[in-house]
Specification:
mainly alpha, Leucine-rich Repeat Variant, globular
Length: 234
């Protein structure tokens, strides 16, 4: 199946009602973080199912889909890249990682980042130098900043928390709630594995932390402890 045929197959599942909802949900209106994005109106499980037909596409073909103006088509391309990365040898993994970094302008909403960053960046960096994450975190691109944070999920799963905590410190006072949510989520994942580590990080930071970030970070704490943080009485 060609890239053109795969995109055509995906579009057969388009639903205008879902597309209208997605337009608002992903803030694709003027002034929103997803301004200008376009939607067919296709649920994620359907995108994943159609993506299985792209297993034999070349990387060049997959990247042509990633550069689509349609959100679900970009999502499909990323699903293909992630699934390919999981099965690839080191040379192909490097190629996928580098292609992803060269196309971050098309990984331009939170769901696209969240489905891909911990594989195509995080998993690649598990046993490599991680300076890239600091560069991404300092980028002017909101999406590259979120990629840096979400990439650390791969490390958290291996009980490696240092990079997550360092990036959380770097982005602690970021102005955008999508970064607050990403940082809070990764802190929560640290706490799910070692709450003492998370609480040590929060100890002298939680009072000045954006409220959304704090709420995400302590979401799984026991109710009494969570309320102490929210009241500022820890």
């Amino acid at each position: 199946m060609s890239a053109t045929e795969l995109r055509a197959r995906l579009r057969t599942h388009a639903d205008p009602a879902i597309a209208a909802h997605s337009q608002g949900f992903f803030k694709a209106f003027p002034g929103g973080y997803g301004e200008g994005d376009r939607f067919h109106g296709i649920r994620v499980p359907v995108v994943r199912a159609v993506a299985r037909g792209g297993r034999d596409l070349t990387l060049k073909q997959v990247l042509s889909i990633l550069r689509s103006k349609w959100h679900e088509e970009r999502l499909m391309a990323l699903v293909i890249m992630v699934e390919r990365f999981k099965r690839a040898d080191e040379a192909e993994r490097r190629e996928l990682h580098e292609a992803y970094l060269a196309n971050t302008e098309h990984v331009n909403n939170w769901d696209l980042v969240d489905i891909s960053a911990h594989h195509l960046v995080g998993a690649w960096l598990l046993d490599r130098d991680r300076k890239l994450l600091r560069r991404l975190a300092r980028s002017r691109s909101l999406w590259e900043q979120r990629i840096a944070v979400i990439a650390t999920f791969a490390f958290i799963r291996e009980h490696q928390f240092g990079d997550t905590l360092e990036l959380a410190d770097l982005l602690l006072h970021h102005e955008h709630d999508l970064i607050h949510k990403a940082v809070g989520w990764m802190l929560r994942e640290v706490g799910n594995r070692d709450r003492a580590v998370e609480e040590a990080f929060l100890a002298d930071r939680y009072a000045g932390m954006p409220r959304t970030m704090l709420r995400y970070a302590i979401e799984k704490f026991p109710e009494r402890r969570r309320k102490q943080y929210l009241r500022g009485s820890v």
